[in-house]
Design goal:
Layout lengths: L2 H12 L4 H8 L3 H9 L8 H14 L4 H12 L1 H9 L13 H4 L4 H44 L2 H18 L3 H24 L1 E7 L3 E7 L2 E8 L4 E6 L2 E6 L5 E5 L2 E5 L7 E6 L4
Antiparallel strand pairs: 1-4, 1-6, 2-3, 2-5, 5-8, 6-7
Length: 278
């Protein structure tokens, strides 16, 4: 009969613990615990492991591990146990010699609570160890990634080159766009030439008050004060002659061409615009 296994199982059940609780608290696999309780010692890894498992199991349940090991030897190796007794090796501890705690009848509830705490504490230690290992793996993986990322700038350089190439394509005029620009320039020149052939057209914009006299093809068409912000326009066949009493206050455009200001502020200037010099 599996005397040792029965005692361990009975004490475990008395403390309302499951085999999983024992596994968490002692790190002994559930399969080995079941074999110990059933007395199937031949299913365990070896004699040394078997004794170690029984000792840890007994200590966790707060039983006398030495006494249980001696019972295990008497149960499975009686010859060796007899020799140990003859040589004075401690045998089974008598009930009177057991720790005082074993002779006291504790209430099952506080005993179970204490063991539960030890089981949870052991479980938490295992979880903490797993967490530390995971953190170390993450840190190492991050370091390796950073090393290869910093040591291989080719990808980033390729992205930059690609971006610059794309920007260059966007900013560079396409053949069709260049052709359109040439056509617009040609059209403007043609328009200017047409205006020149049609005569001379003068536009005056005033940034301040200015006295003006304007002659178109020899005929005076305006004489008086032009107010700030006003725009005036004259068109002649041959020429337009403009006299400005405050040249810095008037800006001329001739046949669509900006001629700038006529002169300085307070300066009296006479300007002649014709089809030959506009």
């Amino acid at each position: 009969m599996a005397v040792v296994g029965d005692k361990l199982r009975a004490e475990r059940e008395r403390q309302n613990l499951t085999i999983k609780d024992i596994e968490k608290g002692t790190s002994i696999r559930s399969l080995y615990i079941e074999n110990i309780e059933a007395g199937k010692y031949d299913q365990l890894p070896g004699e040394v492991y078997t004794k170690g498992f029984i000792r840890n199991y007994a200590n966790f349940l707060q039983l006398d591990a030495t006494a249980l090991l001696h019972e295990y030897m008497e149960e499975n190796h009686p010859d060796i146990a007899a020799q140990d007794s003859a040589l004075g090796t401690p045998t089974h501890v008598a009930p009177a010699e057991k720790p005082e705690r074993a002779a006291v009848h504790f209430d099952a509830t506080p005993m179970t609570s204490d063991l539960r705490q030890r089981v949870d504490h052991s479980h938490h230690r295992q979880n903490a160890l797993v967490l530390v290992v995971l953190l170390v793996i993450i840190v190492i993986a991050g370091g390796v990634f950073f090393f290869f990322e910093s040591a291989s700038p080719d990808a980033d350089q390729m992205r930059q080159v690609s971006q610059r190439t794309e920007q260059s394509k966007q900013t560079s005029p396409s053949p069709s766009s260049a052709s359109q620009d040439k056509n617009r320039v040609a059209a403007k020149k043609e328009e200017s030439a047409k205006k020149a052939s049609d005569g001379v057209e003068v536009t005056a914009k005033f940034t301040d008050r200015c006295w003006m006299e304007v002659k178109v093809d020899g005929k005076t068409v305006f004489e008086g004060m032009a107010e700030k912000g006003k725009t005036m326009n004259w068109k002649g066949t041959q020429h337009v002659v403009v006299t400005a009493g405050n040249a810095g206050a008037v800006q001329f455009t001739v046949n669509g061409k900006d001629m700038g200001k006529a002169g300085g502020m307070g300066e009296v200037v006479e300007k002649t615009f014709s089809t030959d010099n506009n």
